[in-house]
Design a protein that fits this description.
Elements lengths: L1 E11 L2 H13 L16 E3 L3 E8 L1 H9 L5 E5 H7 L4 E6 L5 E8 H4 L9 E6 L2 H9 L4 E6 L15 E6 L3 H5 L2 E10 L1 E6 H6 L1 H15 L5
Parallel strand pairs: 1-3, 1-4, 7-8, 7-9
Antiparallel strand pairs: 2-3, 4-11, 5-11, 6-9, 6-10
Helix pairs in contact: 1-8, 3-5
Length: 222
């Protein structure tokens, strides 16, 4: 397949990429061999599709690259879209990979006597302060957020706060740190996202890629 005017697809590093690569292969996108070299420091790679380039960035940064035109399209978790809420980004397709959930958790002993319906103010450690504030604002609760980029589960035991909002997959990490989920904020999956301006100027090329992803997701032949 030829992408005539050239497109850049931003893909996430880490666990999500492991699930994404087989899906990309079914779509017909194969990165150059160096993409799979764990020692390479390159971040930009050619593909078997003429004119399609991959850039490999942190999942949390994919939406930013797409929103500001550094990439025409990308793959990132719905959690990232909830946090940044970029108007320049359109998410036409749920890829049904990277399943997890964004949840509120607190220490087991606190959860046994706590009543979330009575909250008016909560202090929460999270990587997602904007999404957390918006969620609780809809309930009339003021959420004071302590922003952390990692090790969020440590916050209650070290006195930063009593509660956290974080991604949960199996719940094992919460359990090992004495925490329990008390509220589901959102179910999370990976989404294919597109820059809105690019979709107007390069709609033909982008439509082809989106349709191929859609066909694979629907189980149709590509």
């Amino acid at each position: 397949m030829r992408v005539s005017d050239g497109l850049i697809l931003a893909v996430p590093k880490g666990r999500l990429l492991t699930q994404l690569l087989p899906l990309m292969a079914r779509v017909g996108i194969e990165p150059e061999l160096d993409f799979h070299n764990e020692k390479t420091r390159r971040l930009s790679f050619k593909t078997n599709m003429e004119g399609l380039t991959l850039i490999r960035v942190r999942s949390f940064d994919v939406a930013t690259f797409v929103a500001f035109g550094g990439a025409h399209l990308g793959v990132t978790g719905h959690d990232t879209l909830l946090e940044f809420d970029y108007p320049e980004v359109y998410a036409p397709l749920d890829l049904r990979i990277g399943r997890c959930r964004l949840s509120l958790a607190e220490p087991v002993e606190l959860a046994a006597k706590d009543d979330p319906l009575r909250w008016s103010h909560v202090r929460i450690a999270t990587k997602y302060p904007q999404a957390t504030r918006r969620y609780f604002a809809t309930r009339g609760v003021h959420a004071e957020c302590v922003k952390l980029s990692g090790a969020v589960e440590l916050a209650p035991s070290l006195g930063l706060c009593q509660r956290i909002v974080d991604l949960v997959e199996s719940g094992q990490t919460l359990k090992e740190n004495g925490l329990v989920e008390v509220e589901l904020i959102a179910d999370i999956t990976a989404r294919l996202i597109v820059n809105r301006a690019a979709w107007k100027t390069q709609s033909a090329e982008l439509d082809v890629l989106v349709d191929r992803f859609q066909s694979v997701i629907n189980g149709a032949k590509t």
